[in-house]
Amino acid sequence: MPHTEPHSPRQTSQPSGQKDRLSAAPDTLFVYGSLQFPEVLFALIDRVPAHTPAQAAGWRVAELPGRVYPGLVSGPTTAPGYLLTGLTAEEWRVLDAFEDPVYDLRRLDLVDGRHGWSYTCNFGAEVLETNWSAETFARDHLPAYIERCTAWRHRHEAKNQAS
């Protein structure tokens, strides 16, 4: 079912859009889905940045149809995740290239007063009514997803070296 709710009023900036989303590397990244798994981060950027638990009120982590990873959409709940800090500009570029075009990069206020940039679903993106489960993802999909991330990274690096 298509997502029709307006985005949460807790955002403090407009979406940056797909083109040139990272004119300057943001300071923090709120992760709530596959990027909260150290193994995924390591497959993509060769390390696990400093991270602390965080929550975003007014958002929910929704299942996306046909995908094993979730989307962050406005909702009446609080989305759990982690706040990554200390990402380099190159790591931001890799993560931004990795993210699906269904996402916009937005700055969110977190429940503890901090803020973090996060990849939220575009308005109109199709999401399911059910919430995504990190436990189910870890149990049923994580090893294959890590392989996909590793293969994506190799293709990404080869493409960048060719250009």
Fold and architecture overview:
- With 163 residues, the protein is an alpha+beta fold.
- The chain has a single domain (28-162), classed as Gamma-glutamyl cyclotransferase-like (Hypothetical upf0131 protein ytfp), CATH 3.10.490.10.
- 28% of the residues lie in helices and 29% in strands.
- It has four helices and five strands, in the order βαββαββαα.
- It has helices at residues 38-45, 89-98, 134-140, 142-162; strands at residues 28-31, 50-63, 70-85, 103-109, 115-121.
- The strands form two sheets. The chain has a three-stranded antiparallel beta sheet, with no helix packed on it. A two-stranded antiparallel ribbon has the order 4-5.
- Strand 4 and strand 5 (115-121) form a beta hairpin.
- Helix 1 (38-45) packs parallel to helix 4.
- The termini are far apart.
- The relative contact order is 0.25.
- The model is unreliable at 1-20 (pLDDT under 50).
Mean pLDDT: 86
| Quaternary structure | single chain
What's the CATH H-level homologous superfamily?
Gamma-glutamyl cyclotransferase-like
Strands ordered across the widest β-sheet: 1-3-2
- How many whole angstroms does the radius of gyration measure? 15 Å
Estimate what percentage of residues fall within beta strands. 25-35%
**Distance, first to last CA:** 39 Å
Helix-strand pattern, N to C?
EHEEHEEHH
Structural class: alpha+beta
Sheet having the most strands: 3 strands, antiparallel
Number of strands: 5
CATH first level: Alpha Beta
Question: Any idea how many domains?
Answer: 1
In CATH terms, what is the fold-level topology? Hypothetical upf0131 protein ytfp
Q: Provide the helix percentage.
A: 25-40%
Shape: globular
CATH architecture: Roll
Total helical elements: 4
